[in-house]
Write a structure and sequence with these properties.
Layout (H helix, E strand, L loop, with lengths): L17 H11 L2 H6 L4 E2 L10 E2 L2 E2 L16 H6 L3 H21 L6 E6 L19 H16 L9 E7 L12 E2 L3 H17 L5 E4 L3 E2 L2 E2 L5 H4 L10 E2 L5 H7 L7 H11 L12 H12 L5 H17 L18 H13 L2 E5 L11 E4 L21 H9 L4 E4 L3 E7 L4 E3 L32 E3 L5 E5 L5 E4 L5 E4 L5 E5 L11 E6 L2 E6 L4 E6 L2 E4 L10 E8 L1 H10 L3 E7 L19 H13 L3 E6 L13 E5 L6 H10 L33 H4 L17 E10 L3 E10 L5 E11 L10 E10 L4 E9 L5 E3 L4 E3 L3 E8 L5 E9 L9 H4 L1 E2 L5 E3 L1 E5 L6 E5 L3 E10 L4 E10 L2 E7 L4 E7 L10 E9 L2 E9 L2 E9 L1
Parallel strand pairs: 3-4, 4-5, 5-7, 6-8, 7-10, 12-13, 12-26, 26-27, 27-28
Antiparallel strand pairs: 1-2, 8-9, 11-28, 14-17, 14-25, 15-16, 17-18, 19-20, 21-22, 22-23, 22-25, 23-24, 29-30, 30-33, 31-32, 31-36, 34-35, 36-37, 38-48, 39-42, 40-41, 42-47, 43-46, 43-48, 44-45, 44-47
Helix pairs in contact: 1-11, 4-5, 4-12, 5-6, 8-9, 9-10, 12-16, 13-16, 14-15
Length: 948
């Protein structure tokens, strides 16, 4: 007899719904197996034929950390395209490359940690390059497009499973794992949550990653908003993946919990489903989970919930349905992908200013100068370049090498010791030529510096080094063959790196004045360079006497080389900007908007030698560069593999620029709030509220064509406002225009945005062509978060509708009157006042009311002020109560800004910050008044109540 093949278990049955299959599989797993699923690196379950799985494949603008792949423009550059359809195609190409790469390397994951939807609230944030825009609507439009591309278009199976980063209100690298963002309810709902919500509701998101920071005193990895907000936006299961090391931070750096078992249990109960901690070693996390179970902090049902969420993603990826489940095998480095990388780079370029110098004529003699003129920089989340195009290479190709001269503008120096010898870079000889990052690595921070090259020595002649000052006295030194000086784990200084990079950059130095020379400080180790018998190295810790004093001999100043090249050219193109691994990156915020001094010197030298100077900024963030003396100025993010070709085509007029700024460019550091001030309303941040004059406004970007707008109409209907207008190309070239539609509440009862983006369209128009544009704007787009109600409200009254080419270049206006819900006074007698629901504040800090949920308010320093508008005391009250905790302090209450009517004092400390006590005092009021509270001292105010 032939033995019958046993039937496949239900979880393998493709005809069953995913939910039933997941239930079957969870029931077959042992408790230990389920616990093992909660670490980033999930082991295989051989007895069930289940393969190993890992969460997390970086793919912010191409496949990262896994070797060669197509490199698209940085995320902020994709935001500058204002083109969701283009970005969807980029996401589609990235997901195809992930599938193709996984087919030959199983380490390539399908759970993609991208995109980043943190809003670009503050331009000094080190990770500005990772976000799309300062505007929630534009961010969600671009993020939604990218996630749809990553998801693919199969009706059942997902090509990849995107996870949004970083939940929530995360815009600082300084103290990022211990700092808390104070986010008032209006900012929370109208700003920070909005980009996440719109993207999740669009249906192509598999999960989110909490951020390292705290919000309102509570770590994001135990955020109640995961449950109260995120999981209410979709019927799909969402997988919440922790950021790397963040679960341990709950105890180790944040000290929010006493034990790791408590912390891990709290994170799981809050909604974290996959713990990224201790690299590939899952033993610590699984031990903590078992400990939490043993202590009764978790139940097996809690474990099951998280396992189901991970399995939901794996089933959608087709893992359990055989190799034919996702029919498309993927595509890698195709001609279409290369063309798309060029198209994206072209569309990301923003023409900031043009007095007629651009486009360049074909016979122009060019001087291409600057520290980034012959660079194609990568960032932390880039793949390894297969193809490469620098601005210099692009202009050589477009104008011919005979018409293009080049000066990098580095300072050429020698470093002389007190003995009269000079630092010398020995020949490299035969070495292992693998470039840093050329091999796939799950974490490039683990890549070690090269030790196969000889250390530096000294000799009578020395080696001329290229010195670049990247700002804030951060220097790189480069040997004549292009290798950067670097320090490996053995402490020796070598010319060993192709580019600065790594989690801790080992290629940066600082010259410190000392006696009659300088000490050379290596920033990566914090140790000084010394000359020893066996080579040049960094001094041992705690032995500063070993440091060598160097005399800096400058053989050529960079500005001299730039001036010579500029004087012989018709037009100068100065390419300036940043290295994404230095002075503004993950773990490091910037301190200023100013262009580094070295590059300011080069720009001044070029401009003095030749008035026809174009500044091309290639950077991950805005700069404050006065444009008055420049005839033309452009900006692009680091544009990926085709950046140079794209810039050359725009300069030559082959493509008319149509990128638009995705964030405000401020004129001066004085225009910026503090980096940790997250109250965009109170401190008037972003184009939504900024009352000053920007250097360049949100949405700004010029063209080689001209466009006129006309025929604006608006009609309010059931549930939406229909807005229409026309755009005509009155110029002589085919070009794209980005038509932008904004609104402004004309007579608001609360502070509302100066203007707010409702929609936009990027369109291509031939000369003389007219396009009619129509937008259906939902009424919900006009709503704001009414703190008096704790809900959204469309205020009745007039709203201006503004159509134009930027947030400040408004061409057409009309007004539409909307029916809405009238404001009602706060029913404070029946509902009281939650302290956080203020209308205005000064000097406050929002903190956690409990470790699980709720907010309280405390003074940031000695005193704080809160205002609650239109409080209705009805026929009268006689008593006020406050719920407070802390070491002591006073709550003073007044009406309508008058003298204090009463004061309630906490005279004895409560037993802890979460142990609230109620204070009572006499207080009389009737009718409607504004309530003013002044908090003094180290207390937390949770709630105010009134009674008769």
């Amino acid at each position: 007899m032939t033995e019958r093949t046993p039937p496949a278990p239900p979880f393998r049955d493709r005809h069953l719904p995913f939910a039933k299959r997941i239930d079957d599989l969870v029931a077959r797993l042992t408790l230990d197996e389920k616990i093992s699923f909660l670490h980033q690196f999930t082991p295989a379950v051989g007895r069930l034929g289940i393969a190993a799985f890992r969460t997390g494949q970086e793919a912010l603008h191409g496949v990262a950390w896994m070797g060669p792949a197509t490199v698209f423009p940085q995320a902020v550059g994709l935001g500058a395209t204002w083109n969701p359809e283009l970005v969807r195609r980029v996401g589609d190409a990235v997901s195809q490359e992930i599938r193709a790469m996984r087919a030959r390397d199983e380490r390539v994951g399908l759970n993609v940690w991208a995109p980043t939807v943190n809003l670009l609230r503050h331009p000094l944030w080190g990770r500005n390059e990772e976000g799309y825009s300062e505007d929630p609507r534009l961010t969600s439009a671009i993020a939604t497009a990218y996630t749809h591309g990553l998801r693919g278009d199969h009706p059942v199976y997902w090509r990849t499973a995107p996870v949004l980063k970083h939940w929530l209100a995360h815009n600082n690298e300084t103290d990022r794992d211990t700092s808390s963002a104070s986010v008032r309810p209006r900012v929370l709902h109208e700003y920070d949550l909005r980009a996440f919500r719109d993207t999740v509701e669009a249906g192509a998101v598999a999960g989110v990653m909490p951020a390292y920071n705290l919000v309102n005193g509570r770590p994001n990895h135990v955020s109640p908003y995961l449950r109260e907000q995120l999981r209410t936006w979709t019927d799909e299961e969402l997988l919440v993946c922790s950021d790397a090391g963040a679960p341990s931070n709950l105890v180790d750096s944040e000290h929010y919990f006493d034990t790791h078992e408590e912390a891990t249990a709290a994170a799981l109960l809050a909604g974290v489903d996959s713990f990224t901690d201790h690299g590939t070693d899952s033993s610590k996390i699984t031990a903590r989970l078992r400990g939490a179970l043993a202590r009764g902090l978790l139940t097996e049902a809690d474990i099951d919930t998280a396992v189901r969420r991970q399995l939901s993603v794996r089933f959608r990826l087709g893992e359990f349905d055989g190799p034919d489940a996702y029919a498309a095998p993927g595509a890698f480095d195709t001609p279409e992908h290369r063309a798309l990388a060029l198209e994206a780079a072209e569309q990301a370029i923003v023409l900031l200013k043009n007095d007629g110098l651009l486009p360049l004529t074909p016979d122009t003699r060019l001087a291409v100068v600057g520290l980034l003129a012959d660079e194609c920089k990568l960032d932390w989340y880039s793949g390894t370049l297969i193809h490469r195009s620098t601005p210099l290479e692009g202009l050589y190709e477009r104008f011919g090498t005979e018409r293009v001269s080049f000066a990098e503008g580095v300072d050429r120096v020698r470093l002389r010791t007190a003995e009269g010898t000079y630092l010398h870079v020995p020949p490299a000889g035969r070495t292992d030529e693998r470039a840093r990052g050329a091999e796939g690595a799950l974490d490039p921070a683990l890549l070690a510096g090269r030790t196969d090259l000889p250390p530096l020595t000294t000799d009578a002649g020395g080696t001329e080094l290229a010195l670049i000052d990247w700002g804030e006295d951060v220097l790189t030194l480069r040997a004549p063959d292009g290798r950067y000086l670097s320090v490996a784990e053995d402490g020796y200084v070598r010319a060993a790196a192709d580019q600065p990079g790594g989690w801790v950059v080992q290629e940066t130095f600082r010259l410190e004045p000392h006696e009659n020379g300088h000490l050379l400080l290596h920033l990566g180790t914090g140790r000084h360079v010394c000359v020893a018998a066996d080579g040049v190295k960094v001094a041992a810790p705690g032995s500063p006497d070993e440091a060598t004093v160097f005399a800096l001999e400058v053989t050529e100043r960079g500005e001299d080389a730039v001036a010579r090249a500029a004087a012989d050219a018709d037009v100068v193109v100065v390419v300036a900007g940043n290295d994404p691994h230095l002075n503004g990156r993950e773990t490091e915020d910037r301190t200023t908007l100013r262009l580094p001094g070295h590059q300011q010197r080069l720009l001044r030298a070029a401009r003095a030698a030749n008035p026809d100077t174009v500044l091309a900024l290639v950077s991950a963030y805005p700069y404050a560069v006065a444009p008055e003396t420049l005839p033309a100025m452009l900006w692009t993010a680091h544009g990926g593999q085709a950046a140079g070709t794209a810039l050359a085509r725009v300069l030559a007029g082959d493509v008319s620029p149509a990128g638009r700024l995705p964030q405000t460019w401020y004129a001066d550091d004085a225009d910026l709030p503090g980096l940790l001030d997250y109250d965009v309303i109170g401190s008037r941040q972003t184009y939504l509220y900024f009352e000053g004059t920007p250097l360049f406004p949100f949405g700004h970007g010029l063209s080689y064509a001209r466009f006129t707008y006309g025929g604006l109409t608006a009609r309010a209907g059931d549930g939406s406002v229909r807005v229409s207008f026309s755009v005509t190309n009155t110029g002589a070239v085919t070009a794209d225009e980005v038509a932008q539609l904004y609104t402004r509440a004309a007579d608001p009862s609360a502070i509302r945005p100066r203007r707010q983006l409702l929609d936009h369209a990027r369109i291509t128009l031939a000369p003389g062509e007219t396009r009619e544009l129509s937008f259906d704007v939902p009424l919900s787009a006009f709503a704001f978060w009414d703190v008096a109600r704790g809900d959204w409200r469309v205020e009745p009254g007039p709203y201006e509708l503004l159509a134009g080419a930027s947030s400040e270049d408004i061409r057409l206006r009309t007004t539409v009157t909307l029916d809405g819900e009238p404001a009602a006074p706060r029913a404070v007698v029946s509902r009281g006042l939650d302290a956080v629901d203020f209308d205005e504040q000064s000097g406050t800090r929002i903190v956690d009311r409990t470790k699980v949920s709720g907010d309280a308010v405390t003074p940031a320093a000695e005193a704080a002020d809160l205002v609650y508008r239109d409080c209705d005391f009805g026929t009268g009250v006689a008593e006020v109560t406050v719920e407070v905790a802390g070491e002591g302090g006073t709550v003073e209450l007044s009406l309508d800004g008058g003298a204090a009517a009463t004061a309630l004092t906490l005279t004895a400390p409560t037993t802890g910050p979460y142990d609230y006590t109620t204070l009572t005092a006499g207080f009389t009021a009737d009718g409607v008044h504004d309530v003013h509270l002044r908090l003094r001292g180290p207390l937390r105010l949770a709630r105010v109540g009134f009674s008769g």
